[in-house]
Amino acid sequence: MSWIMKKILEYHLEARVRRRVISNSNFLGWPVNAAIVILSDLNNFLNGWQLILQLLHFMLRSKTTKFIIMGPPGSGKGTISERILKDFKMNYLATGNMLRNEMSQKTDLGLEAKKYIDFGKLVPDQIITGVVLNKLAGMKNENWLLDGQFLYIKTGFPRTIQQANAILENEEINAVLNLDIPFQVIVDRIRGRWTHVASGRVYHTEFNPPKVPGKDDESGDELIQREDDKEATVRARLDYYNTMTKPLLEYFKFIYLYLIFRGKNLLVEFRGKYSNEIWPHVHAYIAQNTSPLSFTTYN
């Protein structure tokens, strides 16, 4: 607000200077001078109102905070999302949950989506887009965090540039938060997981190794590595994610160039190896847009 008022004051002072300079100019004659003063004051008046309207628009838009969070599988996106919800008053939105709700309520979109899911097919973009936009339309005055859920390729949103464009046309997004974790770090993190099937206990060869390699601490049973945790599977998922999301990230980075004059970009990237390393930066950024309830630190 102080910036707007400063600009209005600057226009007012400039008008006074112009009026004084014009009134001291005799070569144009007083009718011309008077007309120039009137036009100058009118221009100043319109500029002032334009700034006031910008202020009102900002005040109305800034009442809510809306973010999309993206990150490859294994990036810690779920952990960061949980921390955001703990420290900020925000609703968590996942496309999978939205779709299940539509199907349970047997809406037209839900019934249409169910036909594809029952046959293991990809739900068409227009159906997923309709489900998400319907949900968001009822949350215009609420803060939310939309999880791209790209691991779930049948319901992920946004997964195409068309879907990204649809949400930007209908919603005022503060930013797209992208967790940029080196893929090799993710591979090393996931391939070290070993599971005890009967109990569900999970070990990690580096961070939480079993007392006896390959054995469960309590039962002594053999540990297994789930198919999803094997290196070849992890790399295949990361390659797929990179292929699908690279155009999206480029779109978010460059399509809204008009945001430059607001001093920020739509795409905000957080780079690091661990959630605890990234979290303070995520918290600090979101706190610029909405007041935090707290700041939880993690060792």
Automatic annotation (TrEMBL):
Aminoacyl-tRNA synthetase found in the keyword field: no
CDD domains to which the protein is assigned, alphabetical: ADK
Domain Adenylate kinase active site lid residue range list: 193-228
Cleaved signal peptide residues: none
Molecular functions per Gene Ontology: AMP kinase activity; ATP binding
Keywords: Kinase, Nucleotide-binding, Transferase
Name of the protein described by the UniProt record: GTP:AMP phosphotransferase AK3, mitochondrial-like
Organism: Octopus sinensis (East Asian common octopus)
